[in-house]
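User: What would this chain look like folded?
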Amino acid sequence: MKRAYPWFVDRVPSTNELELGVDPLVRILAEMTSLRAVMLMGSEAQKSWQLVLRHHADMIMARGIRWVPLSPKSQCLADICARGAHGPEREPQERICHRRRRATEGSLMADPVFVGIDLAWNTNAATGIAGVDDAGVLLDAATLLSDDQIIAWMSRPDWQPVTSAVDAPLIVTNATGQRPCERMISRAFGRYKASCHTSNLGVAYFNPPRGATLAERLGWNLDPAHAGTPESPGCIEVYPHPAMVAFFKLGSVLPYKAKSGRTVEFRRSAFVELFDQMETLPHLGLSENLRWAGTSASPLTASMITSTSM
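Assistant: Here's the prediction, encoded as structure tokens.
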């Protein structure tokens, strides 16, 4: 896919022109009944494909069409090999490009990985989980429910978690009230509407916390001072809303969660902003990742938005 806009213009097409190009492109896709993969040649083609996914994700998924964004970064390993470049000074770049290419192709490596878990407080709600390599490149992500599903995902033989960052209470020893860390976060980020929920042993699902139970089953070290290793993985508690405020320099949290008065359209716009902000973090390599391309279309479906309440 090279020509993102179906009529010749001797310049980069505008967003409006890319929107106008979606319907003709979809009609072409409908005629190509044997199509199995789409190669996205450059940023404009990738933007156009995102528009296709926003409006026709169900059709693309139903047909099993895969797409591969191509850019200088995703092709750099092949370029290096073609030039015959060798030597230790090229090894770090080759390794990073190799990881990016493999992540784009959907394969996983046996290298150490770092995991983020948006852990639901109980198994009635969905848990989001994602892994990145030591260059920060997204490798895989999933939505799970039970502890056994999470443990199976974490225990896959083709990688070894080093540190897991969990958005949920891990160490709860106070009988009532808030933990000191929650009060500190609320003082620093309350003005941005990014305060913490209260965790104490008086709440049934914090006695013990689900995160602590998982950590024990997986053999994770909960000491915040512990530097995780493949032999002794670490686990830390994190706070995504304050992190988003700090990373993206927001005036307040992005209102994508389900609350009274928030319509699907309102939450959809917040989801889109969140995904756009995530793509500004270059080390994640999201623009080259197939899993992300499919995921980034999901917030635009009402069924996904209405099921996201945690």
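The chain has a mean pLDDT of 77. If you want, I can go into more detail on any region.
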